[in-house]
Design goal:
6 copies of one chain form a homohexamer.
Chain A lengths: L5 H21 L3 E6 L2 H4 L1 H16 L3 E6 L3 H9 L5 E3 L2 E3 L2 H25 L4 E5 L6 E5 L12 E6 L2 H8 L3 E5 L1 E3 L5 E3 L2 H12 L3 E6 L17 E3 L3 H6 L7 H13 L4 E6 L5 H7 L6 E4 L1
Parallel strand pairs in A: 1-2, 1-11, 2-8, 5-8, 11-13, 12-14
Antiparallel strand pairs in A: 3-4, 6-7, 9-10, 13-14
Helix pairs in contact in A: 4-5, 7-9
Chain lengths: ~290, ~290, ~290, ~290, ~290, ~290
């Protein structure tokens, strides 16, 4: 016992024993994870997040990853010399922009995440909403009319391909590109897509990896973290401006999931290494829990 | 009987009856199709080829599509201002070029083919060699040394993801991007990839859709089509220069397949609408059959 | 392309593409076919009908054949010197007649059809209503009383043996002989039996092969073919005498099927080679469709 | 205990306990039974034999019944006025005779046995060698040439239909009619057919129900019953004339079965009610055992 | 036929044929047997009862054995010098007594029964209510309060372990020891436990092996055996004192079973060898049938 | 982050990540654990060991527990007034002693372990070698002859019952009592039984929980722990007296396991809480590894 102290042993054992009931509880359950922010950009966090997802798979859960785009899209649009256009404050996605967005999401970011998961020992398979007709969408209607281009709202999920891959022990990694019966391409919000997929799969959990500690009462002050938000409190928190900006689609996706049988939804800090693992396998949990 | 002549009825019935033994013979069998050339570019041919693949699936075969790149890659490289470099007559694929090639193949061409098949009534799922660790490769060694960059040779196929998708009635559509245990990206020849995949699946058939009537004794004269090439004749036909240029990787892929249990391999004219259907379901067959 | 004209290729491809949605629609569906008339007597039509049934099986449908008797029964009764007797206009089937009828139906006609289907590449198995307790019947009661002998009305279908054989890829061929719990033999109307079997199997289609173009408004004039009869129109058409004679049990069997979940029922011209195939796999359809 | 004596109880219990190891031993095993003679003609024996077969099925065995023809065929040939012809001492079966034989075997005798088994509580399905392509045959060649007509020798068994029916808890009842790839009809020896079917199924037992106590050393003296014949003793017993006449095809069928994995073969006295049951479920056994 | 008379054959066959409908009726059905009294103590009866249970298993039933304690418990308590204590006329089971009772039931009697069944050719597995959390109980509340110790009443059955063992062809042998979520040990009445287990399994039959001919109108006179008791007659028979003493928990267990789907319940004379077999497989039945 | 320090988070995450490859490696694998010493006697260790076994089950392993006897047996023998007898230095186990040993092992210790595992959230089922005919033995022959009584050596393992229970997610807990075809009871060494069971199951691991740190070069000095012993070194270590006394049957059981496909065998310190968990899920491992 000279090499490793008894104290270390006790701590290790305690952690394993703490994780025990969660492994049991979540066996065979689906966990939808929305990747984004630093967890997707920072190499160290990329690796730790990939390890977390693979571990979830090893212990018998069905992790499903949904990712967004981020800086890479703008970099590529720049190189193509495509200038952003706006209408009613919303970015217009014309066909050419859509092609580039699809190419970057499906051909670059998605494949990078697949590789990260596979190098970590997983068996990941990248998908867009076109593959297996996974995500169907129609054009977003904007107030006051006007054509917003290829920005879509999700109209349906056919989760069979996700089910088949999970059933074979694989990890689906999904880019937020949708299609329709004519084969058109639609750009959908990744947070919303994650919510819809979690709802259709009646997932156990929906987890958003973000660059904040969670939902903050004062966005400048991490100590104002709200640990738990009840479904019925959301409206009032929006009215108070606590749920605002990029938090709105995330919280709405949580509600959408809760409406359709998702058990618990979480907004956690993706900047802490292994935050996903700690959220799932420890008593305390991290960030903000949104639940009934 | 006034509206449609008896004669038409007889012809229709004859065609259906002719197709009968083939539907029986190929039920549950895997057919690997290498898309390329006009069948991938021309809208009419795109549609007819997609219909053919979907029909094969409907009648119980397992079609697996492998595609190449084509003009879209060069157009995008141009827009990025990337200039082609050559070494020993081979194009050098540096990391930047590789990123663009992957983005176009996996994020643009692959998804377009998936959409075409889905609009035709199929349930297609796009893959690269990274997805499900499908295609592993290492760097191509070139004579005289020198670094050719991200050009790879296939070192292994893990066909599980293809198997799982076929088993669920879906159509895998594969871009010729490979990976390795470090998660690197390798560009592999699409013809070769098709051959390796057919070999690993012990496919019933491997079919190349090309822009020629098949293997021609005189490349200028379609009437010199060679209907059948025996495995053992290949070496001599290469020596005579009949098998040359772009035909070499195709014929080599045929041989590779035949070595590993593929029953028949075909090089057919993708410019004829429904050439795939006619090749599979009619007595005569089209193009060149390469077999033992 | 010198040997077979492009035009022929185009027509063949068009036929295959036309058949595509039907193959898809009917995969795994049960089609009950009532053989009779020329399709059962004429050698050319025997072969073409057998090919049609086998093709249906190949492409994944579950064809179930029900046949009647025809001239062979009378020829054999004649040779035995059995004279027909009538009561209330109905033929009396005494025990001796019943024995001969059963022998001819089950031992001669049924086995000939089984052989035809097997030579065409199928795997047919002949059954009577005794086999697997498939068809139960009781004595037909006639107006004014009187003993009509072994003429039965169907009281129940136990379709397990049909299900088991279809599930194993075989084609059940059924003679209209019924039984009861005492093991008695009953002669039942073949059209009625086909309707009951289709109803119990909740078949997709019930098709009668007849020696007329379908239901004719004027039985002498083929140009008066009624392409479609709605369920609710049947009573009125009977009152008008359009549905009369041998058409009555056929149309009644159609209604019986429709009552129990059969999707579509057809009365078609068995004198046209491959009429069954053309009915199933072409847009136009043949003969008369009876549906809701 | 006044109504039924203790003694009766003890005997009943003893019988059940004696049967125990046999029920265990034969669970899931196939037993091929060749019906013939009195067991097929006498109403009391018909019923008791049917009960025996159904009991075997109830306790988990897979009984398969093969039957012959008997007097009914000659009666029908007589009524048709067909006169027997002979060549080299063998009856010539011309096409017309064959039709009648098939009609009687498949349409009359076979269906009567099916009914008997079903009335006894079984679920029997009648088959000929045409059904499911079960028995293939070619013409018997006779010494000195000459055309013997439709007399066939078995060339192959495709037992799938038997397997499928047994697997569904049904009892196949097989008439000795064979076919070939052209759909011809062949009359085969029922004893031989039973042996071939038992061999192809690698049956546990093959049992012949006959009108003798078994193989007798002196055919006139039942007390000369041979209880057991070893495979290697057969040749010498034939040379001595002990195995002669109708016993030859039976014993040859036993040997054929033993060659292909049948465990035990029996020739027993079908004139004793429930002889089949007693043979299977009691220590002593009946008749003659032919084994390795 | 000189060695065994025809008469014996006829009787054997009759017994087997009589047993036939019962083997059919009970295939795959669960029969819960409460062992007790002489059937558990007398070596001859032990063997015959074990044979009966094994035969039931062989012919496809799922026998489940529940046993009580008997003299062995008192002998062991004596050797330990533990004196019985009573409260309100009920024996108090303190922890020490409970330990001894568990040790004797689970470690001695249960294992002896397992061995008896295995020597008879079965594959038995001994269980207590702790194994697989099979029987849950809480403390019995007694009138007027007071602590009765470890005497429990059943609060729930988790029959999974019984199901799994039956499904694998094994025979569960259950000692009436129960547990709770804290892992405590409770002594439950074996008759009651048998009733609860039969109810939870929705058994076909529940059979009590006792040392009386059944329920007697006059307990001194075997000729007053009541062959059948209807559910609704029980209350009145209790009021009359016909159902009294040790019969009360048995009859109550019968009613409990009948309430939850058990088809028939029996109280039979375990002193007659093979009484279980005769009850199950003969027309007459033994003892008293309690049913709806 | 004020409540739980970042440091703690990092340590927890590190432990979970360390455990990851082991959970993956051992999924679906069988681990045979020999309980004994303090881990079986000390309440704290009982609980922690039970938690460890249940965790193994939760993460998909198949733990199988084998236990010995210990002080409880002697206490009970004392209370019965049974005096130990010795022959050739071995304790003689007469029938009376055997009964007590069986009662204590199967009825007391085994059930206590089952309860411990069930309270910890498992689904344990207690077995002896009689249950499911699991362990067969014959009398141990001792040098110089003489009857050692009911001391047995294992002659065979029928692991079906263990397999069935593991397959249903249950945890078999096995007492070292064996049987034979006559139903006799044999006392076998628990270490040896564990080795035989691990060998028959071709377990991944065999782990002995002991009251020492492992195999010590100097039994008085824990710092002389031997971390790894190769199969081929065992003989020499025995000759040196390093492997001696109670270590001999343990090491021999390890070798027996290794001979039959067990991958790794361990002798670890059961006095450290969660030593089993730490051995399985951490890089370092505890105690002595015996391997090829």
């Amino acid at each position: 016992m000279q090499e490793e102290t008894i104290q270390e042993f006790i701590q290790k054992a305690a952690t394993l024993v703490e994780a025990l009931p969660y492994i049991r509880e979540f066996e065979g359950k689906t966990i939808v994870i929305k990747y984004g922010g630093s967890a997707m950009e920072n190499p160290v966090l990329q690796r730790s997040t990939a390890e977390d997802v693979v571990l979830m798979r090893y212990v018998g859960m069905n992790p499903v990853v949904v990712h967004g785009g981020g800086p890479a899209i703008n970099r590529t649009l720049d190189r193509f010399g495509i200038k952003p256009q706006f209408r009613n404050g919303l970015r217009v996605t014309d066909s050419e922009t859509m092609s580039v967005v699809e190419m970057v999401l499906a051909g670059s970011i998605n494949k990078e995440l697949v590789s990260l998961l596979n190098v970590a020992g997983g068996n990941a398979v990248g998908l867009t909403g076109k593959d297996g007709n996974l995500i169907h969408a129609k054009q977003l209607e904007i107030d006051g009319g006007g054509d917003i281009g290829r920005v879509g709202v999700v109209t349906g999920i056919d989760f069979k391909v996700v089910d088949v891959l999970c059933g074979a022990g694989m990890i689906p990694v999904i880019a937020p590109i949708a299609t329709d019966t004519d084969g058109n391409t639609w750009n959908v919000n990744a947070d919303t897509a994650a919510g819809e997929i979690a709802a259709s799969l009646q997932a156990e959990k929906l987890v958003f990896l973000t660059d904040t500690p969670g939902l903050l009462r004062d966005v400048e002050d991490p100590s104002t973290l709200i640990h738990q938000v009840r479904y019925k409190e959301v409206e009032s928190l929006k009215a108070q401006g606590v749920i605002a900006g990029g938090m709105i689609p995330k919280v709405d996706a949580c509600l959408r999931g809760l409406d359709h049988g998702v058990r618990k939804t979480h907004i956690i800090d993706g900047r802490i290494p292994h935050s996903l693992l700690l959220e799932i396998f420890t008593v305390r949990g991290l960030g903000t829990l949104v639940c009934h």
